[in-house]
Amino acid sequence: MTLHQGEIVVGEELVRRLLGEQCPQWAGLELVPSGAGTENTMFRLGADLLVRLPRTVEKAAALRKERVWLPRLAPHLPFRVPEPVFTGEASAVFPAEWSVFRWIGGSEAGPGSVADWGRFGSDLAGFVRALHRVDLMGADFSWYRGGDLAPCAGWVSDSLESCRALVGAELDIATAESYWRAGLAQPPSPHPKVWLHGDLKPTNLLVEEGRLVAVIDFGAVSVGRPDAEHATVWDLPSAARDAYWNALNLDEPTWLRARAWAVAVAASGIAYYWDTFPAFVTECRTRLTHILSS
């Protein structure tokens, strides 16, 4: 099912044609679907590679950012991150740039993979601390989650109204909205701009033997204020949130702004993907459930 207007439909046959056209050395390797997110469709290629294809031509820009910046960021980070190994060009077969990355093994962070949620929260905080300390290296490209909450008030209010109509009987959207407004009432973030991953949700956190080992999908990488970076901890159990908070020693206004961002992104995800991406809607509902029970 397509998620966006102008989405490029991708299947194994198309990927085979792309490989044969641009990197025939890999054309004979086993090709297996490996999931799809809101931005990309993915195929595992052989034992060691991953093909990522943007869902629309415009979303190829996110892959381009990863190819440029991940090799520069990786040496400063405590866990594995994606390693680009090939840049695919737009062609008659596929009208956008695409990428091949080194495969990273592991399981998504969850109850069946994480051994100790407190330690996981501390490890995630260590990754965030390291990323936020990396020199900006002249980068100055932003994303809305690296800015202030106020410019987002219109679409967040619309998203909350949509959520009230869709799930209002199951979730306390009025309380969620009060958390959004509590963050909105805080002064603008005083923190300096830093590198942001932008989407540290469990599906982008890989675990082996119970421990965090890799952080993937840097499509939202940007430079901005760090408040929204902390929003995804509400996807995690309370033990991880508490350990994360303590490890980073976050102040109350930052935490309130982060919680407001968590509400905003969850509400917009439910509203936008309700009919097209049930798995992502479930992630967003889980986040709101955690926020409302915290």
TrEMBL record:
Transmembrane segments: none
MF (Gene Ontology): transferase activity
UniProt source species: Actinoplanes sichuanensis
Gene3D superfamilies (UniProt xref): 3.90.1200.10, Phosphorylase Kinase, domain 1
Keywords, in A-Z order: Transferase
Span of domain Aminoglycoside phosphotransferase: 33-261
EC code: 2.7.-.-
Taxonomy, superkingdom: Bacteria
Annotated Pfam families: APH
CDD domains to which the protein is assigned, alphabetical: APH_ChoK_like_1 (cd05155)
The protein's name in its UniProt record: Aminoglycoside phosphotransferase family protein
Tagged with keyword Transferase: yes
